[in-house]
Amino acid sequence: MNDNRHTDTRHEIYLQMPLYVIALFVLCDIWMLTVSVVAGIVGIIFTAVYSVVVIVLYISSRVSSEAAYANRAMENGRVQKDLIREFPIPYAILDKTGRLAWVNDEFAHITNTSKRKLMRLTAMQVFEGLTHEMIPGECDEPVHADIEYDGKEYRVEIKNIRVNPDGPVDSVQEQETSEHEEEMENLPVTEDQPQEKKTIKRKKHTGVTNFTAMYLFDMTERNKLAKENEEQKLVTGLIYIDNYDEIFDDLEEVRHSLLVALVDRKINKYMANVDAIVRSFEKDKYMFVMPKKYLPQLQENKFALLDEVKAINIGNDLPLTLSISLGTEYKSFIEDFEAARSAMELALGRGGDQVVLKSNDKITYYGGRSQGTEKSTRVKARVKTLAFKELLETKEKVIIMAHKNPDMDAFGSAIGVYRMVNSMNKEAHIVINEVSSAISPIYGNFTANSMYGDDMIINNEQAIEMINADTMLVVVDVNNPSLTECEELISYAKTVVVFDHHRQTKDVIANATLSYVEPFASSACEMIAEMLQYMDEKIKLRPSEADAMYAGILIDTDNFLTKTGVRTFEAAAYLRRSGADVMRVRKMFRSDIDSYRQKADGVRNAEMVLGMFAVSVFEPKEGPESPIVLTAKVANEMLNIAGVRASFVIAQLGDDVKISARSIDDVNVQIIMERMGGGGHANIAAAQFTNTTKEEVKEQLVNLLEEMYKEGDI
């Protein structure tokens, strides 16, 4: 509008220019009269005639020009009105309640509704995906939303339009405003609208009007192409046979080729259903790529390949198990492959027989129901021991730490590492902040012995002061940094070594120089006992050290009843030869009468869920025995009940609630506890909760057990 006014002003000045010349002629006539009267009279006559002609032309031209400008403006208005009405993008104007005040032809076309009927509806009544909250206020930013209507997908933009006819506003907005005002004036007045109509009329006269415009952009084809593009992206994955060597060592040689052929056929046939390309790059390792659109299909059948391969039996005593890893949703295909490799390490660290899907924002697990196959070979233990020895030679000092509230396995494995370090004449310290009742029976054997020195056991502050570039940090019986005695030490240490037997989760110690995680081992003490035999033939454990490590194996295996393999007994035999006394250890860890009664109460409270899971809720009291240890003992005791495949003890420990889970059958309690935010390994797992009650945790656990049993996950 300013541009139009500016144009009108310039045109007016152009028309008035001849009038200004009249004044110039008058001055010339006055000067001519002073020179010659005759010449002056002639000039006056000429000026008079010129003035009459100019004035007549000015009046007639101005009238015709205004008419031409008016016609042009009216023509522009009609063009703009037709343009916005025939605009190919659906467009509507709403009032502040969301009611449709005006719509263009395309809007009426896509809704297949007449304009008159639309004027009686709100945008929320026409489109189910819209709400009143989406109508922006006067100062709000435009609102965007995605909706579906009549089988099509639309991107909706709703924004305010502030129109001031006397100010700088474009003609399209002015046309929209006038049309909206006309529509509002013609609409019938209802009980909830008279005040609104009065307000709009008042705004019309004050010159400022606020409206809400709504645009609909058809995104159907674009979303379809985007989906097709996303589905055609490649997902990379790896397939490893977990127990290849163990299976073939146990199978007749003439059947080896038959087993390999059957496995290849199962894998290739399964992957052919999802348009995947599979290639074997080692005797027990495969790589595959597949379109992403088939990934939901594999997730829906929970990667049935795991069970199909496990069903192969041509005389092999052990079932064949696979580990599968996939990487997806990263920026490049190379990153996807690296994610698949990382996921495979996680799958193997969790015991195999499962699928790990790693994307850029989360990790998903499938399978993992079997207990895994014990590795009979000690090659890995020997290799890790030699690597540890080489690292140890480059350091002057070693700090050893386990998890918070250390148990006997944590303390015993720390003692074993301490002995390895001392055998190479290196300084060693063990980080323990609080002596729990779980280790107190044997803890005094070391603190009261002058051979170990006063600085054998240190706290967090002392460890942080000691650590430097020549210090190695050894973490035992835990691989989750948040569960360690002092998480800060991990970031300070230049060299970190991890020895653990728990199944890995997504939270692992990422900067470990050497990591030896063996989920098939019964305990960390078993792993360290094997390493001691490869460290140096001259190492001779003291009886108290052998007792500590033997007690760690004894507690973690529940007196050699759970997760016990050939290597477990071999490690126990080594410790027995080193001076471990079975009766001495047993006497150390006997329960007092009050703790035994509490354990009996915990068993008495047990309820059967689905006829196979024992669930007990009780509140242990403080006493000589730690409530955490007592909870674990109740869980172990309930496994002696006939028909129980897994036991769960829910205990109120102050403001926290803890679940201690144990299994004796093929139930993997780790995947159950992971669903509840905890972890562990196949036979022993736990979870801890805050700001809740034991009754609520029990309800959550029972619902989860029923759901997982129904889905076939346990």
Automatic annotation (TrEMBL):
Residues 397-553 form the DDH domain. One of its GO terms (molecular function) is nucleic acid binding. It comes from the Bacteria. Residues 632-710 form the DHHA1 domain. The chain crosses the membrane at residues 12-32, 38-59. InterPro entries: DDH_dom (IPR001667), DHH_sf (IPR038763), DHHA1_dom (IPR003156), Oligoribo/pAp-PDE_c-di-AMP_PDE (IPR051319). Keywords: Membrane, Transmembrane, Transmembrane helix. Residues 165-202 are annotated as: Disordered. This is DHH family phosphoesterase. It comes from Coprococcus hominis (ex Liu et al. 2022). The lineage of its organism: Bacteria, Bacillati, Bacillota, Clostridia, Lachnospirales.
